[in-house]
Amino acid sequence: MGPSALTPSPRLEEPAETVLEFSDNRLLIDLCGEFDRNLAQIEHALEVQIARRGNMLSVMGPADGRDRAVEVLQALYDRLEEGRSLDAGDVDAALRAGARLSHGAGDQMEMFRAGRAEIRTRKKVVEPRTAAQRAYVEALYGNELAFGIGPAGTGKTYLAVAVAVAMFSEGHVDRIILSRPAVEAGERLGFLPGDMKEKVDPYMQPLYDALADFLPGKQLAKLVEERRIEIAPLAFMRGRTLARAFVVLDEAQNATAMQMKMFLTRLGEESRMVVTGDRSQVDLPRGMTSGLADAERILAGVRGVSFNYFSAGDVVRHPLVARIIEAYERDDGAAG
Q1: CA distances (Å), 8 to each of 2, 119, 264, 266, in order?
Q2: Of 128, 176, 177, 123, residue with least CA distance to 156
Q3: How many CB atoms lie within 10 A of CB 43?
Q4: What is the percent of the chain where pLDDT is above 70?
Q5: Which DSSP symbol is given to 4?
Q6: Where does the chain have alpha helices with state H?
Q7: In 71-94, which positions are buried (b, 16+ CB within 10 angstroms) versus exposed (e)?
Q8: What is the pLDDT of residues 225-256, one digit of tens each?
Q9: pLDDT tier at 125 (50, 70, 90 boundaries)?
Q10: Cross-strand partners of 277
């Protein structure tokens, strides 16, 4: 038996590297984020490593993740060069656009770069972060009656309230009216302590929270006191004609067919209405038709009425929320 040949150990290849150089070091600091949290967010999402060296960023990892990271970093830096802000939500939006880009949807990243459909309010500038959100915002401005339908966390109500505040601030409407069906309370409202406002306020709190994001506290309190901003249960809309108002009905899947017709026929001159809801979250008694489903069927194709739909891919809360929604959707599909 001859001498055995030693097989050389395979050499571990160093991860490939792409180096980006940035001309403005101050903007690079903003790009990295406090304690490099923006870089960490990109690293976690794309399974790459990013190291800062002076005015350069070194991106290491597999080619696909590295290319996407480079595209995202460049888009975020371009955004900062335009004088626009950058937060974790913007990083997430760029990552989403980059993911779609890798699947051939090249217009997504261009949309991210373009400064899409900004909504300017007293406290902040709001931007749609997905293609569905952008189409929805355009529908809010372009139609007298707009429906936003999809799961929680997709920005349906938040964007509607932002547009309401923007149009109010610009003088296009004189009032903002926000409403929800207080289905959970049912007949039990009478047994709760306090006056009617104290009884229904817990059900209206998400609407107060949205408004507080767009208006300074003292101004919001003054406008509510003057009834230029109203937040009320759906039942309180009966018998009113809402002229020069921006009206939002939230959680519309819990309106009955009769309540929905009542609400929609409140629309007055120079007003806008937005109806938002999630078909998977109906809390009505078994056998009772949701007014949202009824409106979809009856109003499809009616001029001046738009329907915009959202999916788990449009969730702009914690990324885990999108995965939870997708898991439930798969389970519902399997059960069906």
Answers
A1: 18, 62, 77, 81
A2: 128
A3: 18
A4: 81
A5: P
A6: 25-32, 37-46, 63-81, 88-102, 107-113, 131-142, 156-169, 196-214, 217-225, 257-264, 291-299, 319-335
A7: bbbbbbbebbeeeeebeeebbbbb
A8: 999 999 888 888 888 888 999 999 999 999 99
A9: confident
A10: 149
In this prediction the pTM is 0.71
Supply the DSSP string of 294-327, one letter for each residue. HHHHHHTT-TTEEEEE--GGG--S-HHHHHHHHH
d(CA 278, CA 328) in angstroms, rounded, equals 14
Confidence category of residue 117, pLDDT binned at 50, 70, 90: low
Q: Tokens 């609407």 appear where? A: 207
For residue 58, give the H/E element and its range: strand 56-60
Residue 206, CA distances (Å) to 83, 171, 261, 280 in order:
31, 25, 24, 19
Report the alpha-carbon distance of residue 45 to residue 96 in Å, rounded. 10
Beta bridge partners of 272: 246
